[in-house]
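Q: Got a minute? One more chain.
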Amino acid sequence: MQSTTSIKIASINLYNFIKPPHAFYHANHIYTEQQWQKKIHWFTEYLTKMQPDIVGFQEVFSIDALQ
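A: Always. Here it is, folded:
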């Protein structure tokens, strides 16, 4: 009898994930604290719901905040 194992992989583009008061692409595109918290809440909920085994993050400039 063979057993199978499944792995869930997610790729998430966090689009300019940089903690305020910093900006990466445009100096005038700085998240407010409310926008930042909304962004963190969104992807935290996504990861909780989808429960991927492996995640690839894109456009992360605040690595400490992501960890």
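A: Residues 33-50 form the longest helix (18 residues).
Q: Perfect, thanks.
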